[in-house]
TrEMBL record:
<protein>
    <submittedName>
        <fullName>DUF4440 domain-containing protein</fullName>
    </submittedName>
</protein>
<dbReference type="Pfam" id="PF13474">
    <property type="entry name" value="SnoaL_3"/>
</dbReference>
<dbReference type="InterPro" id="IPR032710">
    <property type="entry name" value="NTF2-like_dom_sf"/>
</dbReference>
<feature type="domain" description="SnoaL-like">
    <location>
        <begin position="16"/>
        <end position="148"/>
    </location>
</feature>
<dbReference type="InterPro" id="IPR037401">
    <property type="entry name" value="SnoaL-like"/>
</dbReference>
Length: 158
């Protein structure tokens, strides 16, 4: 028999992973409403201590409106994107959860002719997604993605 605390932690871990999955699935579908639902809202999301996002190669974005606008731009300018998450880890501390993962991304490159899907290109990003527990469930507070610029294995670094 597991201790009640372990059951609650397992439920929290499952809920955080579901929220993390919802982020990537909403991007794959280009679903602005679902993406908006993933992020922290209300007074907790305002500029001062609110949501933060760093897309690979972008400056830091603060505030819910700026962060959501950035995702809308990405979705509007991406014909196809799919995320294969690996190395997913969850750390829970009270009402905060950190999910780290590798985003293995497959997306369409620039098409030769308008109206056609461009060639598929791959990329890899290391991401940290910080969630906060709210009355409405776990919501994304901060996303930071850093591109992986090397293709070598960890063993090669020794």
């Amino acid at each position: 028999m597991t201790a009640p605390g372990r059951d609650a932690e397992a439920a929290d871990r499952e809920a955080v992973l579901a929220a993390n999955t919802a982020l990537y699935e909403s991007l794959e579908r280009g679903d602005a409403d679902a993406l908006t639902e993933v992020w922290l809202s209300g007074a907790d999301a305002d500029d001062a201590g609110g949501v933060v996002c760093v897309h690979p190669g972008w400056p830091m974005l603060r505030g819910r409106a700026r962060v959501l606008r950035s995702y809308m731009l990405i979705m509007a300018n991406t014909e196809y994107i799919q995320f294969f998450l690996t190395d997913v880890e969850v750390e829970l501390v009270g009402d905060v959860a950190l999910v780290t993962c590798t985003e293995n991304i497959l997306s369409s490159g620039e098409a030769e002719q308008e109206g056609e899907l461009g060639p598929l290109v791959g990329g890899k990003v290391i991401a940290s997604n910080l969630f906060r527990r709210t009355a409405d469930g776990w919501r994304l507070w901060s996303h930071h993605g850093s591109p992986v610029l090397t293709s070598g294995d960890e063993e090669d670094e020794d």
